[in-house]
Amino acid sequence: MDGQRARDLLTLLQERVVFLTGGRDRRGGPLLCFPATPRRDRLKPEDLRRLLSYLISIPSDAAKNLGFTVIIDMRGNGNCSTNVKTILKVLQEHFSANIHNVVIIKPDNFWQKQRASISSHKYKFETTTVSIESLNKIAESHQLTGDFEGQQLYDHQQWTDARLAIEDFFWQAGDMADRIDDLQEDLNRNDFAEDVPLARHAIDHHNEMRKKITKLPIEDLDMQGKKLLAKINAMAPPGGQAPTNSGGPEMDSGPSSAGQQSQPSQQSRSVGGNPDMSAAVNKALRQIELIHTGQEKLLMLWQHKKVKLDQCFQWRLFEQDCEKMFDWILHNRDVFQMSYVEIGHNYSVAKSLQDEHQKFAVASMNVSVNIDRILAVAARLIESQHYAAQHIKTLAQRLDRTWKDFAAGLDERTAVLQLSVLFPTGRTVLHSVPAGQPHVSSQLCLGYQSLKRHPDSSVLLRRHANQEPECAHVLQDDDAMHLSLLENCDVSVDKLGEVVLQDAFQAWDTKQIIRKGRERRVFLFELYLLFAKEVKESNVVKYQFKSKLMTTDMGITEHIEGDETKFAVWTGRSPMLSDCRIVLKATSLETKQIWVKKLREVMQETCFSGTSLTLPKSPAKHSGSSQRSSRDLDEQLTENDHDRCSLASFGSGNTTDSDNKVALSSKKNFASSPTSHGSSLHPHPQPTHLALHPRVVDSAAIGQLN
């Protein structure tokens, strides 16, 4: 509370010089009464000013705006005009704006000279001198105490005690309101932390603030308010008669207020009839209600800020996790880029680099799991209407983009190392080119760089093998590497003959009920055409053997309607009646043409080489010629070779997927010829018009051809 308190003026109040009884004049203005007492002479003007200042501040603003009516009793001994003038002077100098009029109760022996002395001064308020009997024209009798022959019950000591209790209550209520305002100001402050430790500290501090809110002594204030109400209700005197001398024992007893009843209801009415006390009680009740409302508002603000602080903590945690991921990615990207161009100069180095990179890639996948978790957290925060949702979205997009760039670099590095392991001798070939042949080196460099970018590596290898013989070494190592991955073959590798070609195809077995294309790795040897399935075990590629065809018992259908990259291999009497017919789809038309050409060459070479079908070819005898025929695509047959073993003699040269009737009729003619087993064959090659096909040449005929 601001201003003076009853406790500060307790000594002056106990002098009983002036009362604020709660009475009202006929206008409704509050009454300020100076009973007849000799103590007025001892009161200093300054003390009177302080006392009046306190009493004038008590009524409500509505009552004060009507102006006070001051009643001064000059009856009795010691009440002279001098102290009346002192009172009027203090009122004129300090409270003229609050005073409506001053009523002076004259004694019976009041002289005209005294009246003239009092009225000689000009005051800003009206001054009236009346008898005690005429006082009811100013205020009704129940608004006047017994000191003024009225009926109002008033006990100055009870009034003083009540004012002390009221002011103590409002003092504590005001202190409580100040504490609530301070807490509310703290809760309204948006001082969000900049990092995780500060955010955690803010949450701890906020939890302590809730304890302060819940521990506000509001229940004690409620209890004090109840005691105050009981004290005010007990202000009525217990007796049936109102006291007639509130001023003290100095005053003679005035007329009693007859008709007063002693019932509690009457006492309550008289106490409740004091509008100043009623206003104080109502103000106290409103203050208690405001305190409770303030506490509830504090709890709501606390909960609202708790959500914000939790979101701030989540935001800073998310930001911290993102920074850790950024640091990891950028650091490892720098380390990764330092060795990015290293691909190894030989197989062992390339394989070591690949293994090391694979371990790094696996470790990076663990980081990928963490990044996915962080991005999931970001999505949940955005969906929960986070106050920093836009910042979270921006940071999450940046993290996702940074990780994808890093992962793309890993994938590129993986692809480069795979090529390096598959073709480890390419650089060795480049370095081994003689210094006097720079054109070969430049062509090899261009070919090698093109090979890394081209999806069909086998075609590129064979194309460059055609251009320069040195490139054939790369192709040989490639074939040998794939052959080393072959497993579970029912024929030993040394009995298969030299490997001529190997490549990936999509294969259809026409004898299967469900004709579904399957990925197959196909190996062409000098004695067999072998089919294998690619499998991966622990990221290691292997080729699982599936089936094989003998090149001496095989035919070719070059053109399959509907797809220019398809061709067929078959065994038996004809393509449509064959025991085994497999359709192969190459990766490109160029690959198909290479295979068809090589298949025909191998079939010719096997047919006329004089090699037993049951024994492997002697490496010392045939390795040179077979190697040349299987690697050098530009090797041309001599004119005599074309006459002896023309491609047209293999009735599958340019046929479609149909029976070769010429081949069937040739078989019959050859079998029925009387010279087919005789010795009438010419000792040197002669042109023949027979459609010689490996399928129709038996072992005896082969012996005679040799």
Strand ordering within the main sheet: 5-9-8-7-6-12-11-10
CATH architecture of the largest domain: Roll
Measured distance between first and last alpha carbons = 133 Å
The CATH superfamily of the largest domain is known as Pleckstrin-homology domain (PH domain)/Phosphotyrosine-binding domain (PTB)
CATH class of the largest domain: Mainly Beta
Task: State which percent range the strand residues make up.
Answer: 5-15%
Can you count the beta strands? Answer: 12
Uncertain residue segments: 239-271, 425-431, 444-448, 450-457, 611-706
Mean pLDDT: 74
Helix amount, in percent?
Answer: 40-55%
Q: CATH topology of the largest domain, which one?
A: PH-domain like
Report the radius of gyration as a whole number of Å: 60 Å
**How many structural units, i.e. domains?**
4
- Write down the overall geometry: rod-shaped
The chain-level structural class is alpha/beta
Helix count, DSSP H or I runs of 4 or more residues: 21
